[in-house]
Amino acid sequence: MKKRDPIFVTQPALPALDDFIPYLREIWDSRILTNGGSMHQRLERALCEYLGVAHVSLFCNGTQALITAIQAAGLEGEVITTPYSFVATAHSLLWNNLRPVFVDIDPDTLNLDPARIEAAITARTTAIMPVHCYGHPCDVRAIQQIAERHRLKVIYDAAHAFGVRDEAGSLLQHGDMAVLSFHATKVFSTFEGGAIVCRDEATKRHIDQLKNFGLSRDGSTVEFTGNNGKLSEVHAAFGLLQLQGLDQALAKRRLIDQRYRRGLAGVRGIRCIDGVGEALGNHAYFPILVGADYPLQRDQLFEHLAAHGINGRRYFQPLISSLPMYRQDPSSSADNLPVAHRMVEQVICLPIYPDLDHDSVDFIIELVAGAAA
């Protein structure tokens, strides 16, 4: 089997430079480079329309958006969350002087397991922060019922879930707030960027004030301990351009997802995460689980792929709860998180992005299936 040029899990989608130039010229002529200029305002409106949500506040990155959402919610004490995510999820809690309390995940969805949440609730618990892992929806109804019983707020880390819908419409409508990432590797990108989706105008005004140092609306005084989370006009312009081709990009991702599933369906020991129905998901990632029936261990398959130029990702390894700043917490005990510890030793994310050609997908399938023959 011949070796090809390296293929990575994702690659940023770049529009034609000629299409971007008019946006840059408009920014240059306006002399407004940041701080809520016309591109920023246009992108917020466009995202509300595309996503089917009421209010969007743009940010310079998803992590700053998470930090600000938590601050805007006025949380204290403890927040229940998942150990199976990127570290920004838990870091945003620490930055707000909150204790992350880790709860195990569901073995089928890899999302926070609602059946385990209530046992972790204490008198100090003020919120739940689930993650729509790989863009697959959490059990939003079960989580909301728990939150209402215990008077807790819910903030979704929806970094992977841009454009995902359920039977009620946008997945981002669930919870008190949902936070997006627009990093270059995401389905929708502004190079770097992020956003908070919230339910009402008053919350949006407060969020917008917090991301601008806590300044009053007229700029005459500082009313809150805010930060600088603003998205520049150049980043917003790139987002407007990206949005134009997003439906086509998602359609290409869907076809790649289907091709992988067909090709891997009969491979012993390989399980594709079911996720969501075809018409609802964004196919942001393609994770597979390498089980005991597969001839190679997960790391051996990872190296086998890498030897042929396929750079998969063991995403998310290590677990957040295993990192030095978290591992001493009682909730980080491996006995408390058996499913997360098992899944993190099995997962590989295979490449998926709009420009990945079918020959390359078939090559990857052949590598995985061939090792099981």
UniProtKB/TrEMBL annotation:
SUPFAM superfamilies xrefs = PLP-dependent transferases
Instruction: Report keywords, A-Z.
Output: Aminotransferase, Pyridoxal phosphate, Transferase
* Gene source species: Pseudomonas bharatica CSV86
- What Pfam families is this protein classified in? DegT_DnrJ_EryC1
Question: Which family is this sequence assigned to?
Answer: Belongs to the DegT/DnrJ/EryC1 family.
Q: Which CDD domains match?
A: AHBA_syn
Judging by the UniProt lineage, the source's domain of life is: Bacteria
The GO molecular function terms of this record are:
pyridoxal phosphate binding; transaminase activity
- Biological process GO terms, please? polysaccharide biosynthetic process
Name the chain's protein.
DegT/DnrJ/EryC1/StrS family aminotransferase
